[in-house]
Structures are given as structure tokens and as C-alpha cells.
Amino acid sequence: MAYDEALRRWLGALLGDERFTADLDGFVTPLLDAGWTNSLAAQLVKLTAPGVPDIYQGTELWDLSLVDPDNRRPVDYDLRARLLAALEHLSPAEAWARRAEGLPKLLITRDALRARPVGGYRPLPARGPAAGHVVAFVRDERLATVVPRLPLRLAREGGWRDTTVDLPWRHDVPVAELLADLPAALVERP
Prior knowledge:
8 helices, about 45% helix
């Protein structure tokens, strides 16, 4: 169609404009870590909260779809298998260092599926100056999910400072400690 062709030409010209793409990169780059953090938080909450998670095949890594992904599109299973094998030798901090590859999301997905919480649910209290930025709950009294919310605002407000969360087996745990290596934590009772 003429409209589709015109749209392709316009996008090609826009993305071929070095000044525009430099401006776009300058706008997007500072948002990447916050976007990855939000994606990790959403994935962990989705996989550990009560109910059946809405999962699309192939979204174990970052997915930049503007709409819900289509479960019929091809998935690079070989890439996922290689990255999953690499995770066996990486710490959470090392996975976060390779975040552009999607390793943190794959790590969170793997760990949450291995843990498979099925029992009771209750929220966990957070205290301190950034308590409003914590989403935390426990399942089965053995598995805690702790994730941040609104990470850009959290950074502007000075970070976690003395914010703590009460785990059923340990009180006043600094949130900064829980999220030091990866900005989403699945904590199992020792």
C-alpha cells in the first residue's frame, strides 16, 4: 500500500538522520537501567505472586514489543540455552553486568520457576525513607520477593538510605543489601 511505503520511507529517513539518532540515544540511554529494573521487578512479582502468570514464549529475555508479544513468532531457543548455561557460572552481580544480553531476566525467571511458591501470601513491611519504593511479600513463609518501584524517582530522592524490610526469619534487613547485586531479590529462608 502507498501508506505503508510512505511510512517506511519516513522511518528510514528519520533513522538515517545522525543528529536525530544521537538525540534519541541521549534521551534513551539514561532510562535503560530503570527500564531493566522495572522489567525485572515485574517479572519476579508476576512469577511469585498468587495466581497464574501470563507468560509469552520467548520473553525470558528483554522484549521490546510495543504490544503483547505474539506466541507464534519464532524464538531463538539456542541463544536461550547458551545464556542459561552461562548463568550456571555467574553470580547475580555478574549477570547484572551483562544486562544488555538479558541475563538478569533469564536468571530471575529460572530462579522463580525453580522455587515455585504455591502456598500462603502476605505482604512484608518496609520501613525507612524509601519504604514507598519497596514492594515485598512472602510466600509459604519461606520465599520472599523484594523489588523496587519507581527507580528513577528513588534515585532522585537519594536511594535506599536506611530503608529496611522485615523477612519472616530476619528483621530489619537493609533493602540496599538485598538489592546490592541485582535490582530484584528472591530470598529463600536459610
